[in-house]
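Exercise 7. Given the encoded structure of a 127-residue chain, write a plausible sequence.
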C-alpha cells in the first residue's frame, strides 16, 4: 500500500517509492469487532515503541471508514497512555491508496514454506 509507482514487485517496492508491506484483512463484523482486531494488532505487532527503520516495514494502519479511523486513533492514544510511550505508528485512509496484491511467490507464504514472512520468528504474544 502507499507508494508512488504502479504494480510494485518484491524487487522494486523498496526503491524509494514509499511502499509498505501490508496485510489486507477482510472480516465479518457480526463475528468480531474492529476493536478486537486492533487489540490483536497491539498484541502481535512488532514493538510499536521502537523507531521505524526500513519504511517498507513501518507500523501503519490503513482504515476504510471514518469509524475505523476514530477507533484506530483512540486505540493508538490508549496504547500511548498505557505504555507511557508514543507508538511510532501512522494512520492512513486506505481509499487514498491502491492495495497491490503481492506476487504469487508471496501468497500463502507460511503454508508454502513453513516459515513466517520476513521476521524469521513466529509471532508471540507479549502478554
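Solution.
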Amino acid at each position: 500500500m502507499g507508494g508512488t509507482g504502479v504494480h510494485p514487485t518484491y524487487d522494486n517496492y523498496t526503491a524509494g517509492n514509499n511502499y509498505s508491506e501490508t496485510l489486507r484483512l477482510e472480516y465479518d463484523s457480526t463475528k468480531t469487532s474492529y476493536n478486537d482486531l486492533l487489540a490483536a494488532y497491539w498484541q502481535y505487532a512488532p514493538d510499536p515503541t521502537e523507531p521505524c527503520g526500513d519504511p517498507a516495514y513501518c507500523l501503519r494502519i490503513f482504515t476504510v471508514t471514518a469509524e475505523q479511523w476514530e477507533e484506530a486513533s483512540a486505540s493508538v492514544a490508549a496504547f500511548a497512555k498505557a505504555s507511557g510511550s508514543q507508538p511510532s505508528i501512522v494512520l492512513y485512509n486506505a481509499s487514498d491508496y491502491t492495495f497491490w496484491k503481492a506476487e504469487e511467490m508471496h501468497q500463502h507464504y507460511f503454508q508454502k514454506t513453513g516459515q513466517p514472512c520476513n521476521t524469521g520468528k513466529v509471532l508471540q504474544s507479549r502478554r
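Remark. Residues 75 and 81 are 10 Å apart (CA to CA). Students should compare their own answers with the one above.
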